[in-house]
Protein backbone atom coordinates (compact mmCIF):
# COMPACT_ATOMS: atom_id res chain seq x y z
CA UNK A 1 0.00 0.00 0.00
CA UNK A 2 1.32 3.41 -0.91
CA UNK A 3 0.38 6.00 1.70
CA UNK A 4 0.79 9.79 1.60
CA UNK A 5 0.59 12.13 4.63
CA UNK A 6 -1.18 15.47 4.51
CA UNK A 7 0.60 18.80 4.83
CA UNK A 8 0.46 18.88 8.64
CA UNK A 9 1.17 15.18 9.12
CA UNK A 10 3.94 12.63 8.92
CA UNK A 11 3.73 8.93 8.13
CA UNK A 12 5.25 6.67 10.76
CA UNK A 13 6.06 3.11 9.66
CA UNK A 14 7.23 0.17 11.82
CA UNK A 15 7.52 -3.54 11.30
CA UNK A 16 9.34 -5.88 8.91
CA UNK A 17 12.73 -4.65 7.77
CA UNK A 18 12.68 -1.55 10.03
CA UNK A 19 14.87 -1.57 13.14
CA UNK A 20 13.21 1.33 14.98
CA UNK A 21 10.71 3.55 13.18
CA UNK A 22 10.67 5.26 9.80
CA UNK A 23 9.15 8.71 9.36
CA UNK A 24 8.22 9.82 5.85
CA UNK A 25 5.79 12.17 4.15
CA UNK A 26 4.96 9.33 1.68
CA UNK A 27 6.08 5.74 1.39
CA UNK A 28 5.13 2.14 0.55
CA UNK A 29 3.74 0.11 3.40
CA UNK A 30 4.76 -3.49 2.81
CA UNK A 31 3.13 -6.58 4.22
CA UNK A 32 4.31 -7.17 7.77
CA UNK A 33 4.57 -3.43 8.40
CA UNK A 34 2.16 -1.05 10.17
CA UNK A 35 1.74 2.67 9.70
CA UNK A 36 0.07 5.63 11.35
CA UNK A 37 -0.13 9.37 10.84
CA UNK A 38 1.05 11.87 13.46
CA UNK A 39 -0.33 15.39 13.45
CA UNK A 40 2.28 18.18 13.71
CA UNK A 41 -0.13 21.05 14.33
CA UNK A 42 0.48 22.75 17.71
CA UNK A 43 -2.03 22.48 20.54
CA UNK A 44 -2.97 25.12 23.12
CA UNK A 45 -2.74 24.01 26.75
CA UNK A 46 -4.34 26.24 29.38
CA UNK A 47 -3.20 25.85 32.99
CA UNK A 48 -3.62 27.56 36.33
CA UNK A 49 -0.39 26.71 38.13
CA UNK A 50 -0.47 27.04 41.90
CA UNK A 51 2.97 28.04 43.20
CA UNK A 52 4.54 29.57 46.33
CA UNK A 53 7.15 32.31 46.59
CA UNK A 54 10.23 32.35 48.80
CA UNK A 55 8.19 34.10 51.55
CA UNK A 56 5.76 31.12 51.53
CA UNK A 57 3.06 33.25 49.82
CA UNK A 58 0.84 31.15 47.51
CA UNK A 59 -0.42 32.49 44.18
CA UNK A 60 -1.95 31.25 40.93
CA UNK A 61 -0.17 31.66 37.63
CA UNK A 62 -2.65 31.42 34.67
CA UNK A 63 -0.82 30.48 31.49
CA UNK A 64 -1.56 29.37 27.93
CA UNK A 65 1.14 27.35 26.17
CA UNK A 66 1.11 26.55 22.45
CA UNK A 67 3.11 23.32 22.16
CA UNK A 68 3.73 21.01 19.25
CA UNK A 69 6.36 18.59 17.87
CA UNK A 70 9.61 20.04 16.61
CA UNK A 71 10.22 19.44 12.90
CA UNK A 72 13.48 17.57 13.26
CA UNK A 73 14.31 13.91 12.73
CA UNK A 74 15.25 13.05 16.35
CA UNK A 75 12.43 15.16 17.78
CA UNK A 76 9.89 13.58 15.47
CA UNK A 77 10.98 10.11 16.55
CA UNK A 78 10.57 11.05 20.24
CA UNK A 79 7.16 12.60 19.56
CA UNK A 80 6.03 9.63 17.51
CA UNK A 81 6.94 7.25 20.35
CA UNK A 82 5.11 9.50 22.82
CA UNK A 83 1.76 9.51 21.03
CA UNK A 84 2.04 6.09 19.43
CA UNK A 85 -0.82 4.90 21.62
CA UNK A 86 -2.37 8.30 22.47
CA UNK A 87 -3.89 11.21 20.67
CA UNK A 88 -2.25 14.61 20.88
CA UNK A 89 -5.36 15.93 22.62
CA UNK A 90 -5.48 13.05 25.06
CA UNK A 91 -5.26 13.55 28.81
CA UNK A 92 -1.95 11.63 28.87
CA UNK A 93 -0.12 14.25 26.80
CA UNK A 94 -1.87 17.11 28.59
CA UNK A 95 -0.98 15.72 32.01
CA UNK A 96 2.63 15.22 30.91
CA UNK A 97 2.95 18.79 29.69
CA UNK A 98 1.09 20.15 32.73
CA UNK A 99 3.36 18.22 35.12
CA UNK A 100 6.51 19.59 33.50
CA UNK A 101 5.20 23.18 33.48
CA UNK A 102 3.88 23.09 37.05
CA UNK A 103 7.05 21.46 38.42
CA UNK A 104 9.47 23.91 36.85
CA UNK A 105 7.26 26.90 37.68
CA UNK A 106 7.02 25.95 41.35
CA UNK A 107 10.75 25.34 41.66
CA UNK A 108 11.56 28.70 40.07
CA UNK A 109 8.93 30.58 42.13
CA UNK A 110 10.24 29.10 45.37
CA UNK A 111 13.61 30.76 44.74
CA UNK A 112 12.15 34.24 44.17
CA UNK A 113 10.32 36.70 46.36
CA UNK A 114 6.82 37.87 45.52
CA UNK A 115 8.14 41.33 44.71
CA UNK A 116 10.68 39.86 42.27
CA UNK A 117 8.00 37.75 40.59
CA UNK A 118 5.55 40.65 40.36
CA UNK A 119 7.99 43.27 39.11
CA UNK A 120 10.04 40.94 36.92
CA UNK A 121 7.20 39.15 35.15
CA UNK A 122 9.05 39.23 31.84
CA UNK A 123 12.20 37.65 33.30
CA UNK A 124 10.12 35.15 35.27
CA UNK A 125 8.29 34.14 32.11
CA UNK A 126 11.58 33.75 30.25
CA UNK A 127 13.07 31.55 32.98
CA UNK A 128 9.96 29.34 33.01
CA UNK A 129 10.05 28.90 29.23
CA UNK A 130 13.74 27.94 29.24
CA UNK A 131 13.41 25.36 31.99
CA UNK A 132 10.17 23.88 30.60
CA UNK A 133 11.69 23.64 27.11
CA UNK A 134 14.66 21.66 28.48
CA UNK A 135 12.27 19.10 29.92
CA UNK A 136 10.06 18.93 26.80
CA UNK A 137 13.06 18.29 24.53
CA UNK A 138 13.18 14.68 25.68
CA UNK A 139 9.65 14.17 24.28
CA UNK A 140 10.30 16.01 21.01
CA UNK A 141 7.96 18.89 21.92
CA UNK A 142 8.60 22.57 21.32
CA UNK A 143 6.98 25.67 22.84
CA UNK A 144 5.84 27.80 19.93
CA UNK A 145 4.16 30.42 22.07
CA UNK A 146 3.36 31.04 25.70
CA UNK A 147 1.30 33.65 27.42
CA UNK A 148 1.49 34.16 31.18
CA UNK A 149 -1.52 36.10 32.42
CA UNK A 150 -1.73 38.37 35.45
CA UNK A 151 -0.87 36.66 38.73
CA UNK A 152 -3.96 35.77 40.78
CA UNK A 153 -4.39 35.46 44.56
CA UNK A 154 -5.22 32.15 46.16
CA UNK A 155 -8.42 32.25 48.17
CA UNK A 156 -7.58 33.32 51.72
CA UNK A 157 -4.31 34.98 50.61
CA UNK A 158 -5.26 38.31 48.99
CA UNK A 159 -1.74 39.61 48.45
CA UNK A 160 -2.27 41.12 44.99
CA UNK A 161 -5.63 42.66 45.88
CA UNK A 162 -4.13 44.32 48.93
CA UNK A 163 -1.18 45.38 46.81
CA UNK A 164 -3.59 46.94 44.27
CA UNK A 165 -5.50 48.67 47.03
CA UNK A 166 -2.21 49.94 48.41
CA UNK A 167 -1.25 51.30 44.98
CA UNK A 168 -4.64 52.97 44.53
CA UNK A 169 -4.47 54.53 47.99
CA UNK A 170 -0.95 55.72 47.35
CA UNK A 171 -2.03 57.27 44.03
CA UNK A 172 -5.06 58.94 45.64
CA UNK A 173 -2.95 60.23 48.50
CA UNK A 174 -0.31 61.48 46.09
CA UNK A 175 -3.00 63.30 44.08
CA UNK A 176 -4.29 64.96 47.26
CA UNK A 177 -0.75 65.92 48.15
CA UNK A 178 -0.20 67.37 44.69
CA UNK A 179 -3.41 69.45 44.90
CA UNK A 180 -2.53 70.69 48.38
CA UNK A 181 0.99 71.49 47.26
CA UNK A 182 -0.32 73.45 44.26
CA UNK A 183 -2.65 75.46 46.52
CA UNK A 184 0.19 76.04 48.92
CA UNK A 185 2.46 77.24 46.14
CA UNK A 186 -0.21 79.74 44.99
CA UNK A 187 -0.83 81.16 48.43
CA UNK A 188 2.85 81.15 49.32
CA UNK A 189 3.70 82.90 46.04
CA UNK A 190 1.16 85.64 46.72
CA UNK A 191 2.34 86.16 50.26
CA UNK A 192 5.92 85.99 49.03
CA UNK A 193 5.37 88.86 46.60
CA UNK A 194 3.81 90.99 49.30
CA UNK A 195 6.55 90.13 51.74
CA UNK A 196 9.24 90.89 49.17
CA UNK A 197 7.78 94.38 48.66
CA UNK A 198 7.71 95.05 52.40
CA UNK A 199 11.17 93.56 52.82
CA UNK A 200 12.66 95.76 50.09
CA UNK A 201 11.14 98.90 51.61
CA UNK A 202 12.29 97.93 55.10
CA UNK A 203 15.69 97.04 53.74
CA UNK A 204 16.09 100.46 52.16
CA UNK A 205 15.05 102.18 55.41
CA UNK A 206 17.35 99.95 57.45
CA UNK A 207 20.27 100.55 55.10
CA UNK A 208 19.71 104.29 55.38
CA UNK A 209 19.67 104.12 59.17
CA UNK A 210 22.68 101.83 59.15
CA UNK A 211 24.69 104.20 56.99
CA UNK A 212 23.73 107.12 59.22
CA UNK A 213 24.59 105.17 62.34
CA UNK A 214 27.84 103.98 60.76
CA UNK A 215 28.86 107.53 60.02
CA UNK A 216 28.11 108.60 63.61
CA UNK A 217 29.79 105.46 64.98
CA UNK A 218 32.90 106.00 62.90
CA UNK A 219 33.24 109.53 64.32
CA UNK A 220 32.81 108.25 67.90
CA UNK A 221 35.10 105.32 67.22
CA UNK A 222 37.83 107.60 65.91
CA UNK A 223 37.51 109.83 68.99
CA UNK A 224 37.62 106.79 71.30
CA UNK A 225 40.62 105.40 69.42
CA UNK A 226 42.56 108.61 69.92
CA UNK A 227 41.64 108.71 73.64
CA UNK A 228 42.66 105.09 73.97
CA UNK A 229 46.00 105.63 72.34
CA UNK A 230 46.68 108.60 74.64
CA UNK A 231 45.74 106.51 77.71
CA UNK A 232 47.86 103.61 76.52
CA UNK A 233 50.84 105.91 76.06
CA UNK A 234 50.40 107.34 79.56
CA UNK A 235 50.07 103.85 81.08
CA UNK A 236 53.13 102.70 79.19
CA UNK A 237 55.17 105.61 80.55
CA UNK A 238 53.99 104.86 84.12
CA UNK A 239 54.85 101.18 83.63
CA UNK A 240 58.32 102.06 82.34
CA UNK A 241 58.92 104.30 85.40
CA UNK A 242 57.71 101.54 87.79
CA UNK A 243 59.89 98.99 86.00
CA UNK A 244 62.94 101.27 86.29
CA UNK A 245 62.28 101.80 90.02
CA UNK A 246 61.93 98.02 90.54
CA UNK A 247 65.12 97.27 88.65
CA UNK A 248 66.97 99.91 90.72
CA UNK A 249 65.69 98.38 93.98
CA UNK A 250 66.68 94.87 92.83
CA UNK A 251 70.15 96.05 91.90
CA UNK A 252 70.59 97.78 95.26
CA UNK A 253 69.50 94.57 97.11
CA UNK A 254 71.86 92.44 94.97
CA UNK A 255 74.77 94.82 95.63
CA UNK A 256 74.11 94.68 99.41
CA UNK A 257 73.94 90.87 99.32
CA UNK A 258 77.15 90.61 97.33
CA UNK A 259 78.89 92.93 99.82
CA UNK A 260 77.77 90.76 102.76
CA UNK A 261 78.84 87.59 100.97
CA UNK A 262 82.21 89.12 100.20
CA UNK A 263 82.72 89.98 103.89
CA UNK A 264 81.76 86.42 104.98
CA UNK A 265 83.96 84.86 102.29
CA UNK A 266 86.88 87.03 103.42
CA UNK A 267 86.47 85.90 107.04
CA UNK A 268 86.13 82.23 106.05
CA UNK A 269 89.09 82.51 103.72
CA UNK A 270 91.27 83.77 106.58
CA UNK A 271 90.10 80.88 108.81
CA UNK A 272 90.71 78.33 106.02
CA UNK A 273 94.15 79.71 105.39
CA UNK A 274 95.01 79.45 109.08
CA UNK A 275 93.72 75.85 109.15
CA UNK A 276 95.73 74.93 106.07
CA UNK A 277 98.87 76.40 107.53
CA UNK A 278 98.30 74.56 110.82
CA UNK A 279 97.73 71.33 108.90
CA UNK A 280 100.91 71.83 106.94
CA UNK A 281 102.82 72.34 110.19
CA UNK A 282 101.37 69.18 111.70
CA UNK A 283 102.03 67.23 108.53
CA UNK A 284 105.64 68.35 108.53
CA UNK A 285 105.96 67.26 112.18
CA UNK A 286 104.36 63.91 111.36
CA UNK A 287 106.61 63.43 108.36
CA UNK A 288 109.65 64.21 110.48
CA UNK A 289 108.57 61.67 113.09
CA UNK A 290 107.79 59.13 110.39
CA UNK A 291 111.14 59.51 108.75
CA UNK A 292 112.81 59.06 112.08
CA UNK A 293 110.82 55.91 112.82
CA UNK A 294 111.49 54.60 109.32
CA UNK A 295 115.18 55.13 109.84
CA UNK A 296 115.00 53.14 113.05
CA UNK A 297 112.75 50.26 112.04
CA UNK A 298 113.16 50.09 108.25
CA UNK A 299 115.79 47.39 108.14
CA UNK A 300 114.07 45.23 110.75
CA UNK A 301 110.67 45.62 109.13
CA UNK A 302 112.06 44.84 105.70
CA UNK A 303 113.61 41.58 106.91
CA UNK A 304 110.45 40.57 108.75
CA UNK A 305 108.30 41.48 105.79
CA UNK A 306 110.34 39.40 103.40
CA UNK A 307 110.38 36.49 105.83
CA UNK A 308 106.62 36.68 106.34
CA UNK A 309 106.06 36.99 102.61
CA UNK A 310 108.08 33.82 102.00
CA UNK A 311 106.23 32.02 104.78
CA UNK A 312 102.88 33.23 103.43
CA UNK A 313 103.77 32.10 99.91
CA UNK A 314 104.83 28.67 101.24
CA UNK A 315 101.66 28.33 103.31
CA UNK A 316 99.58 29.42 100.34
CA UNK A 317 101.29 26.87 98.11
CA UNK A 318 100.74 24.08 100.64
CA UNK A 319 97.10 25.06 101.09
CA UNK A 320 96.56 25.14 97.32
CA UNK A 321 98.08 21.67 96.96
CA UNK A 322 95.99 20.36 99.87
CA UNK A 323 92.87 21.94 98.38
CA UNK A 324 93.64 20.38 94.98
CA UNK A 325 94.13 16.98 96.64
CA UNK A 326 90.90 17.35 98.60
CA UNK A 327 89.06 18.44 95.47
CA UNK A 328 90.41 15.47 93.53
CA UNK A 329 89.51 13.13 96.39
CA UNK A 330 85.99 14.63 96.60
CA UNK A 331 85.52 14.23 92.86
CA UNK A 332 86.55 10.58 93.04
CA UNK A 333 84.31 10.03 96.05
CA UNK A 334 81.40 11.67 94.19
CA UNK A 335 82.00 9.43 91.18
CA UNK A 336 82.18 6.37 93.44
CA UNK A 337 79.02 7.41 95.26
CA UNK A 338 77.28 8.00 91.95
CA UNK A 339 78.32 4.54 90.74
CA UNK A 340 77.23 2.99 94.07
CA UNK A 341 73.92 4.87 93.88
CA UNK A 342 73.34 3.58 90.37
CA UNK A 343 74.20 0.04 91.48
CA UNK A 344 71.92 0.34 94.52
CA UNK A 345 69.16 1.73 92.36
CA UNK A 346 69.55 -1.16 89.94
CA UNK A 347 69.62 -3.66 92.83
CA UNK A 348 66.60 -2.08 94.43
CA UNK A 349 64.78 -2.11 91.11
CA UNK A 350 65.51 -5.81 90.76
CA UNK A 351 64.52 -6.44 94.39
CA UNK A 352 61.31 -4.45 93.83
CA UNK A 353 60.61 -6.52 90.70
CA UNK A 354 61.22 -9.69 92.69
CA UNK A 355 59.03 -8.53 95.54
CA UNK A 356 56.33 -7.55 93.08
CA UNK A 357 56.54 -10.98 91.49
CA UNK A 358 56.49 -12.64 94.94
CA UNK A 359 53.51 -10.51 95.97
CA UNK A 360 51.70 -11.47 92.78
CA UNK A 361 52.43 -15.17 93.42
CA UNK A 362 51.48 -14.78 97.07
CA UNK A 363 48.22 -13.09 96.05
CA UNK A 364 47.55 -15.88 93.57
CA UNK A 365 48.29 -18.41 96.34
CA UNK A 366 45.94 -16.60 98.70
CA UNK A 367 43.24 -16.64 96.04
CA UNK A 368 43.73 -20.38 95.52
CA UNK A 369 43.90 -20.94 99.30
CA UNK A 370 40.73 -18.89 99.77
CA UNK A 371 38.97 -20.89 97.10
CA UNK A 372 40.13 -24.18 98.75
CA UNK A 373 39.09 -22.86 102.17
CA UNK A 374 35.66 -22.05 100.76
CA UNK A 375 35.32 -25.56 99.31
CA UNK A 376 36.50 -27.02 102.66
CA UNK A 377 33.99 -24.96 104.65
CA UNK A 378 31.13 -25.79 102.28
CA UNK A 379 32.01 -29.50 102.51
CA UNK A 380 32.26 -29.34 106.32
CA UNK A 381 28.95 -27.46 106.56
CA UNK A 382 27.27 -30.04 104.33
CA UNK A 383 28.75 -32.91 106.39
CA UNK A 384 27.43 -31.42 109.67
CA UNK A 385 23.99 -30.77 108.25
CA UNK A 386 24.39 -27.03 108.10
CA UNK A 387 24.93 -26.65 111.88
CA UNK A 388 26.93 -23.43 112.17
CA UNK A 389 27.76 -23.87 115.89
CA UNK A 390 29.08 -27.39 115.34
CA UNK A 391 31.27 -26.15 112.45
CA UNK A 392 32.56 -23.28 114.62
CA UNK A 393 33.39 -25.58 117.58
CA UNK A 394 35.09 -28.06 115.29
CA UNK A 395 37.25 -25.39 113.69
CA UNK A 396 38.23 -23.90 117.08
CA UNK A 397 39.20 -27.33 118.43
CA UNK A 398 40.94 -28.38 115.20
CA UNK A 399 42.98 -25.18 115.01
CA UNK A 400 43.91 -25.08 118.74
CA UNK A 401 41.99 -21.89 119.48
CA UNK A 402 41.17 -22.96 123.04
CA UNK A 403 44.78 -23.97 123.75
CA UNK A 404 45.90 -20.59 122.41
CA UNK A 405 43.30 -18.84 124.58
CA UNK A 406 44.52 -20.72 127.67
CA UNK A 407 48.11 -19.83 126.82
CA UNK A 408 47.27 -16.16 126.29
CA UNK A 409 45.31 -16.09 129.56
CA UNK A 410 48.21 -17.71 131.40
CA UNK A 411 50.62 -15.15 130.00
CA UNK A 412 48.21 -12.36 130.85
CA UNK A 413 47.89 -13.35 134.54
CA UNK A 414 51.55 -14.24 134.98
CA UNK A 415 53.09 -12.03 137.67
CA UNK A 416 49.69 -10.51 138.54
CA UNK A 417 49.13 -12.83 141.54
CA UNK A 418 45.67 -13.97 140.43
CA UNK A 419 43.22 -15.44 142.83
CA UNK A 420 43.33 -19.20 142.07
CA UNK A 421 41.35 -21.80 143.99
CA UNK A 422 41.81 -25.60 143.81
CA UNK A 423 38.97 -27.92 144.59
CA UNK A 424 39.14 -31.64 145.27
CA UNK A 425 36.64 -34.29 146.32
CA UNK A 426 38.00 -34.30 149.86
CA UNK A 427 40.62 -36.99 149.63
CA UNK A 428 44.06 -37.58 148.14
CA UNK A 429 45.41 -41.00 147.36
CA UNK A 430 43.51 -43.54 149.47
CA UNK A 431 43.82 -47.14 150.28
CA UNK A 432 41.94 -48.18 147.26
CA UNK A 433 44.63 -48.09 144.59
CA UNK A 434 42.31 -49.41 141.86
CA UNK A 435 40.13 -46.30 142.02
CA UNK A 436 43.00 -43.75 142.30
CA UNK A 437 43.05 -42.93 138.60
CA UNK A 438 39.27 -42.50 138.45
CA UNK A 439 39.38 -40.31 141.52
CA UNK A 440 41.90 -38.06 139.84
CA UNK A 441 39.66 -37.80 136.76
CA UNK A 442 36.66 -37.12 138.95
CA UNK A 443 38.60 -34.43 140.79
CA UNK A 444 39.53 -32.74 137.52
CA UNK A 445 35.95 -32.87 136.27
CA UNK A 446 34.67 -31.38 139.54
CA UNK A 447 37.23 -28.62 139.25
CA UNK A 448 35.97 -27.49 135.78
CA UNK A 449 32.82 -25.49 136.80
CA UNK A 450 34.61 -23.25 139.32
CA UNK A 451 37.50 -22.92 136.82
CA UNK A 452 35.14 -21.70 134.14
CA UNK A 453 33.63 -19.22 136.56
CA UNK A 454 37.06 -17.88 137.55
CA UNK A 455 38.06 -17.51 133.87
CA UNK A 456 34.77 -15.75 133.18
CA UNK A 457 35.33 -13.35 136.09
CA UNK A 458 38.87 -12.50 135.02
CA UNK A 459 38.57 -12.51 131.21
CA UNK A 460 34.83 -12.32 130.47
CA UNK A 461 34.98 -15.47 128.29
CA UNK A 462 32.27 -18.18 128.43
CA UNK A 463 32.97 -21.90 127.86
CA UNK A 464 31.34 -23.66 124.89
CA UNK A 465 27.99 -25.27 125.63
CA UNK A 466 29.30 -28.80 125.00
CA UNK A 467 31.88 -28.43 127.80
CA UNK A 468 29.41 -27.31 130.49
CA UNK A 469 27.81 -24.27 132.03
CA UNK A 470 28.82 -21.96 134.84
CA UNK A 471 27.42 -22.95 138.30
CA UNK A 472 24.50 -20.88 139.49
CA UNK A 473 25.73 -20.69 143.07
CA UNK A 474 29.22 -21.46 144.30
CA UNK A 475 28.82 -24.21 146.91
CA UNK A 476 32.34 -25.54 146.74
CA UNK A 477 34.81 -24.76 149.43
CA UNK A 478 38.48 -24.65 148.91
CA UNK A 479 40.55 -27.13 150.79
Automatic annotation (TrEMBL):
GO CC annotation, single: caveola
Residues in Band domain copies: 5-183
Lineage, opening ranks: Eukaryota, Viridiplantae, Streptophyta, Embryophyta, Tracheophyta
Protein known as: Flotillin-like
Organism for this UniProt entry: Rosa chinensis (China rose)
TM helices/strands, residue ranges: none
Stored Pfam families: Band_7
Signal peptide: none
PANTHER family: FLOTILLIN-LIKE PROTEIN 1-RELATED, FLOTILLIN-RELATED
Subcellular location field: Cell membrane; Membrane, Caveola
Similarity-based family: Belongs to the band 7/mec-2 family. Flotillin subfamily.
Top-level taxon: Eukaryota
Primary location recorded for the protein, binned into one broad class: membrane
Keyword tags: Cell membrane, Coiled coil, Membrane
Membrane topology note: Lipid-anchor
Family annotation (InterPro entries): Band_7, Band_7/SPFH_dom_sf, Flotillin_fam
Amino acid sequence: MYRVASANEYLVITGLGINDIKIRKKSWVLPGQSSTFIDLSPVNYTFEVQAMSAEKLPFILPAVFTIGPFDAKDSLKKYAKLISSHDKNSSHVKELVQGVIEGETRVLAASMTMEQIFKGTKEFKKEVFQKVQLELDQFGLYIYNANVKQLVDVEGHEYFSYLGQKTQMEAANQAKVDVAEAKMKGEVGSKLRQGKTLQNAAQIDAETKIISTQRQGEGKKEEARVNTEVKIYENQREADVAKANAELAMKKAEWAREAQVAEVEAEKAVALKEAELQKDVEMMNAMTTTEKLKAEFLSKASVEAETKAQEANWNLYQKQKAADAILYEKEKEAEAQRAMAEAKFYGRAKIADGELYAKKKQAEGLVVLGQAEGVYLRTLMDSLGGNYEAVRDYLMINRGIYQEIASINGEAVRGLEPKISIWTNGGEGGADGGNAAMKEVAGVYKMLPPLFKTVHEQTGMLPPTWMGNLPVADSSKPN
